[in-house]
Write a structure and sequence with these properties.
ATP-binding; elongated; ATP hydrolysis activity; two-stranded parallel ribbon; six-stranded mixed beta sheet; AAA+ ATPase domain-containing protein; 8 strands; nucleotide-binding; 3 domains; Rossmann fold; single chain; alpha/beta
Length: about 525
Amino acid sequence: ASSAIELVKTQEATKQHEAAAKRAEMDAYSQQLRQQNIQAEAEEARKTLEAQTQHDKHRSEYKDELERKRQVDMLNAQKYMQDEQLKKQEEMVERQESMRRKTAEIEADLRTKTELAKTQAEAEGRIRQERENHDLILDKVRLEAAENRNTVLKAVSDGGKMLGEGLSSYLTDGEKLRNTAFMVSLAAVGIYSAKTAAGIGGRFIEARLGKPSLVRETSRVTVSQMLKHPISSAQRLTGLGVSSQDALKGIVLEDTLDSQLRKIAVSTAHTKKNKAPFRHLLLHGPPGTGKTMFAKGLAHHSGLEFAILTGGDIAPLGRDAVTEIHKLFEWAKTSRKGLLLFVDEADAFLQSRETNKISEDQRNALNAFLYRTGTESDQFMMVYASNQPSQFDEAVLDRIDEMVEFDLPGEHERRKMVALYIEKYLLNPPARWAKKVTTVDIGDEEIERVVKETEGFSGRAISKLAIAWQAAAYGTDGAILDKETFFSTVQNHKKSMSQKDGWMQHAIERADMLTTDR
């Protein structure tokens, strides 16, 4: 019985252990299920967050796309409104001009009719008055005629008597006759001599010291220069203290172009020395590349005087242009040293006569110019400067003996120019009282960067950039130019140039549109 009890206890204990094991197994399984649920919930939360993030991203991108589209639509609408406004303004100006012309025509017509009616009324009034007073007027005229006749007869009688007595006394006196003849002869000679001398002197002064109206700048001495600077003017007239100089002084050019221009300078100097005919020269290329500077240097180097005129000054003269051109060449012939006549913006005047853009007055002026330059001359040398030589008249091109193209400076030339103008305007300014600029943190590396950024600049643009650096430095207390100001000035200069190019392109397009409309 006790063993049965023990067996039962053992079985009971075994069952309890099995139940405990199952319970532990169930707890572990429950724990595993809870872990799996937690992981599933975490995964679901992560996916939900990713989906929400992706949704927000798509929504933001869509809003950004809508905003950009709205900006583009707004800019297009503004451009359309500006174009419409410009079109309306042009139409309004055209209407106003048409109304002004019509008003002027109506006013002129009314004024003419009024003057005609007034004149007619005055004439009718005078006729009516003369008809009514015909008898009175006739009697008055008769009385006045009789009185005038008596007065004239009396005066003639008295005058004849006095003249006869005086002439009789004068003719009987031989000394008076001789003195009178001598004085009359002397007065006639004096008057004729003074008149002739005044004319010759006036023409000489005008030819030697006057300046034609077409000439904007000249190295020849004028009356105003003699009054302002008598000593230097006298030296220039006599040739004292004046020496030739390098034709390319202060000009930085590409090596091949430099060599070509030096040969031209030497050839021109020898041509003048040997009194041979001068060869006419065309300098063409973009603005600001040194064409005018070379022309002046060529004149100084060869011992010639120079005169500068602009092609755009001739057209406004109208009918007087022919006379002024003849005066210009007559003045050029009076130069003892020879004259280099530099025509800047020559394409504005020397356009082809085949085009319809040239007026009759300008055509006549061009014919006069061609007449004056048709033969070789040892008295003057023509140098033309143009950005568009293709517009020249065929006869003008035939008179050009040599052509030289001035291109924009390359990197090597820009490096020389930047160094040259920094030295000229910053480190050693030309004015004696000008303060030198102190540069801070500006060395070879910074200058090299400026050389790279100024690609497409002309020599004049680089010179203006250096002047802008000088102005920026003078805007500080100690005339200091630091690195930041150095580069910001370059960027501002580039921005200004870009804006000018845009304006110029717009003007060209506008001119083309107007030409097409016509």
